[in-house]
């Protein structure tokens, strides 16, 4: 029951407050306080993830947990994601963390292959050979990821057989929204371990695999992205 | 209900006007409330004020539970309750001031807190002494002082014109650019303190376990492993030439020699820089990055958190700027490696601060990763040019202070490496010009003549002393 109705109901039992004038006053006074109390209740609901309305209030909860809503993500999906904040963050710096966060972008099957994986498979990848330059020889901290099917990327109308970027859409694939490839890079940069570098991502589009250079955030922010192994683990 | 609905505040007047509208709608003859002591009118004002109080409280509550909107005390409480993070308090600066006593003056014996000092002509910005001391006739003493006001205002420049505010016959005080203090014993039991000397080379022996020698432009004090700073001060004060050396050093400038122990080479009288309370944005940065520290592997965000975490024995982290460069080592791309660059608002950290921050980061990254924690190199920009001050709108000293404050703010806002590797000349000029909008007509900026390139490992420091101020008639 609102305060306005409560005051009027109570007042109606007391003769001086039962007059139309008095009832009008009680209703207006109670209504003014109801307005404020509604906001108090709204603030309390907004402060709790479970009660919070959707939209920008839920976005603010996401920011509290250092997340942003993924493009097109529903309130229900975002709320469910935020319920798992701590289990998710426990995976930070691991392949499981990368997989969970890339899955949010629709990349449901993600594998990672490190220089050491390749080395023990008999491939001297990422310059992993004695005498190679680098603090401890070669680039043992390098890896790449494969984003297999299902993923949200599609072939473009300019499809030309998977040659590299040809001046149209990026690398012969169409993004589900502008900036989706940038989001893939951001997720990798944020969730990989510090000191290990994902050099590129191979993305499956139909029956073809396309390459997205990843590298490090600073390699991009300082202008030209010309670091080693951005296309292939054997090609510097 | 959206965020903007929750943050709506109302004044008592607006609440009252809305209430009067509702009263009219309810058939209440508010026009009859002519007297200012009308009971219903008064009650309506009380209700309006009650609504304002409750509604503002709701807005405060809503704003304080979201990082994107929380500020001030609300943010402090939310950071504490949700992230277990305490806002770093403001830090009182500490300096070593040099006291000298005239040869004909009496002996002064003083307890801690007995002395007050401050800039000449100023009633604020006072410092009080922290240590007990005896000042002999014709003697010198280094005394630790603390600012009475917390924050960067206590970071006075070298050679500031100081005055003792405590009457001590024959005594004077100065703030030398370099002084003898106790060095860190990290050289096989012998500690060094290096002080600058200008302009002559002098060599002088104080004894078997203590000597003062001049090397180039430097005076080096060598002490035995058990010699204390106080004993050095006593020995130096007892020796005429050593005293002169110290005095000369106090007046001079210089730089350390290659090979000197960096940890004990002091070129400033600042013992502890004053620091403002941690700003909202920096508190939020620690809140956001704290989640990442729970991860099984150390991530870039976790490195940022640990770089800004409170070092052991500190009241506040000296770090306000961090850049975590994964897979960058000695400037180049590297495997299983990284560089974490740290700086404070005043630029590069001292070796002691850097060591404390490095200790915070030890063991926080993946085993087998080579991580270098480094401080930045200061890139000083000394703008020159003329600032035209409109006569009658402001004084030159007001404008000078405003320009210094504006550049200090800009310096704190600039990240390591500047903005996209630059400090933009146009923006620098605008910051100077907007420092005192009503008092500054325009600025004719000479240097820098173009945008300044800032390297990835550099902090920008502004030195506004080269600006000239000229009064004009509008």
Structural description of this entry:
- The complex is a heterodimer of chains A (236) and B (474).
- With 236 residues, chain A is an alpha+beta fold.
- Chain A has 9 helices and 6 strands, in the order ααααααβαβββαββα.
- In chain A, the strands form 2 sheets. In chain A, strands 1-2-5-6 form a 4-stranded mixed beta sheet.
- The longest helix of chain A is centred in the N-terminal third of the chain and has 28 residues, at 20-47.
- Chain A is rod-shaped.
- Chain B has helices spanning 3-6, 12-25, 39-64, 72-83, 229-238, 240-251, 280-290, 300-308, 351-361, 396-413, 425-433; strands at residues 94-101, 108-110, 116-119, 127-129, 133-135, 140-147, 162-164, 171-174, 191-196, 203-207, 210-215, 218-223, 270-272, 321-329, 332-343, 370-375, 377-381, 384-390, 422-423, 440-447, 452-453, 458-462, 467-472.
- Chain B is an alpha+beta fold and 474 residues long.
- In chain B, strands 1, 3, 4, 6, 7, 8 and 13 form a 7-stranded antiparallel beta sheet that branches.
- Chain B is globular and about 90 Å long.
- The interface between A and B is large, with 69 and 72 residues.
Summed over residues and divided by their number, the pLDDT of chain B gives a mean of: 82
Overall strand count of chain B: 23
Spans of chain B with pLDDT under 50 lasting ≥5 residues?
A: 178-220, 244-267
Rounded average pLDDT of chain A: 89
- Count of helical stretches of chain B: 11
Number of helices of chain A: 9
Could you tell me the radius of gyration of chain A in angstroms?
28 Å
Largest sheet of chain B: 7 strands, antiparallel
Percent strand of chain B equals: 25-35%
Overall shape of chain B: it is: globular
Rg measurement of chain B, Å: 29 Å
Fold blueprint:
The complex is a heterodimer of chains A (236) and B (474).
Chain A lengths: L2 H10 L7 H28 L8 H9 L10 H9 L1 H6 L4 H10 L4 E6 H6 L21 E7 L5 E2 L17 E2 L5 H12 L5 E9 L2 E6 L3 H5 L15
Parallel strand pairs in A: 2-5
Antiparallel strand pairs in A: 1-2, 3-4, 5-6
Helix pairs in contact in A: 1-2, 3-4, 6-8
Chain B lengths: L2 H4 L5 H14 L13 H26 L7 H12 L10 E8 L6 E3 L5 E4 L7 E3 L3 E3 L4 E8 L14 E3 L6 E4 L16 E6 L6 E5 L2 E6 L2 E6 L5 H10 L1 H12 L18 E3 L7 H11 L9 H9 L12 E9 L2 E12 L7 H11 L8 E6 L1 E5 L2 E7 L5 H18 L8 E2 L1 H9 L6 E8 L4 E2 L4 E5 L4 E6 L2
Parallel strand pairs in B: 15-16, 17-22, 18-23
Antiparallel strand pairs in B: 1-6, 1-8, 1-13, 2-5, 3-4, 3-7, 4-6, 9-12, 10-11, 11-12, 14-15, 18-20, 19-21
